[in-house]
Amino acid sequence: MSTPPAGETAPSPSPSRHADVLVKIETDRRLGHEWDEWNGQPLANGGDFRSTAGKFFLFTAVGLTAIVVASAAGIFLLAPRLAQLAQWLPRALYLADAALALAGFIWLALIGVSYVTNRVLLLKTLRLASRVGEVFGVQRDWTDNAAIAVYNRLAWAREWRVRANEMLILIPRCLSRTALEGVMEIAKRYDVATFVATRGAYARQAIRERRPKAVVAVACERDMVSGLHDVAGRLPVLGLTMQLPNGPCKDASLDLVKMEEFVRKYLR
């Protein structure tokens, strides 16, 4: 089992119970950069952004459509000048735009089929749906949660097993005492190392240093999307989002039953 590096302390409370599975904890209390714009007011729905996967597919489709239409409009406006360069150039660009549209919607359809049938496809882009949702006044956290649900469904279908010492649990420092106690009990039960990070950069550093073969990560929707975008293409990751009853980065709660399911999923 892993022990905390020299000179660092385990989390309070009960350090003696958790020191054998806790890797590291940072004490910087700065809010995560993804929440820099938070005004301190209570979050919508008590900080619980659990949603359906439909928002991901809806807003991704709208975003792809907007990109294709904007490209076609740009070609139309520039067509006279482009034709002066070569008569065939506007038509070629229209065809390229149509091909882009076809590829984009085939890509989205394949993700949809994968989601329904539990067949694995690599989901590389998570941010488009949330950006489009914001245009329509939908708070990004709802759409991010939907995107994470789609990602987890695809990741779950991947048959991947590791030993306990090859797995890493990543958690933020903003968990409530009850949630932290619950996570550490699960980590101790399955003898899995746990890293507590204040920022995404520290989580990525932990992955680089420990080189796990599978990760179960806990974070809010914003940090989770950012983290999955950075590391999910390189190793198996399952992401568990939190509920934020007191706003971001404070006393967050999570589904401990789901947490244990994620841990068990990867263990041999």
Description:
With 268 residues, this protein is an alpha/beta fold. The protein folds into two domains: 15-50 and 161-266, Response regulator (Rossmann fold, 3-Layer(aba) Sandwich), CATH 3.40.50.2300; 54-153, no CATH class. Helices cover 51% and strands 9% of the residues. The chain has nine helices and five strands. The chain has helices spanning 15-18, 54-85, 89-117, 127-135, 140-156, 177-190, 200-210, 221-231, 256-266, and strands spanning 22-24, 167-172, 193-197, 214-219, 237-241. Strands 1-3-2-4-5 form a five-stranded parallel sheet, with helices on both faces. α6 links the parallel β2 and β3. The two termini are 17 Å apart. The model is unreliable at 1-19, 25-29 and 119-123 (pLDDT under 50).
Q: SSE layout and pairings?
A:
Blueprint: H1 15-18, E1 22-24, H2 54-85, H3 89-117, H4 127-135, H5 140-156, E2 167-172, H6 177-190, E3 193-197, H7 200-210, E4 214-219, H8 221-231, E5 237-241, H9 256-266
Parallel strand pairs: 1-3, 2-3, 2-4, 4-5
